[in-house]
Design goal:
- Helices cover 50% and strands 7% of the residues.
- With 107 residues, it is mainly alpha-helical.
- It folds into two domains: 35 residues; 71 residues, 2-Layer Sandwich (Beta-Lactamase), CATH 3.30.450.
- It has a two-stranded antiparallel ribbon with strand order 1-2.
- Strand 1 and strand 2 form a beta hairpin.
- The longest helix is centred in the first third of the chain and has 34 residues.
- The relative contact order is 0.08.
Length: 107
């Protein structure tokens, strides 16, 4: 009985530590993005904008609220539309992105 209880406590501790590490990582990323002079638009695997840095206002003249929830294709110039579609098709769910980062596709 004691061993089972110890195992459960260890599992819960591991889960809590992983959750804390994830939160800290997200906080670091948010701080970097908020203070970046680069315009960064985060897009999910369906091509929908999930977030944008404050610099997007300066560079694109659009507030992040005008972008979030909308397809990124609305921002792609017509001359680049086909290349953008090919790039997004190459990045399938579960595969690493073309940039080899987790969760970002640089285009």
């Amino acid at each position: 009985m004691v061993l089972i209880r110890q195992e459960l406590v260890l599992r819960e501790n591991s889960r809590l530590l992983a959750e804390q590490a994830r939160r800290e990582s997200e906080e670091r990323f948010s701080a970097l993005a908020a203070n970046s002079s680069d315009a960064v638009v985060l897009v999910d695997r369906d091509g929908v904008v999930t977030d944008a840095t404050p610099a997007v206002v300066r560079v694109l003249g659009l507030d992040s609220s005008q972008l979030v929830g909308r397809p990124i294709s609305r921002l792609v110039h017509g001359d680049d539309a086909e290349r953008s579609r090919r790039s997004s098709r190459m990045w399938r769910p579960g595969d690493p992105s073309p940039s080899q980062s987790s969760g970002a596709c640089w285009m």
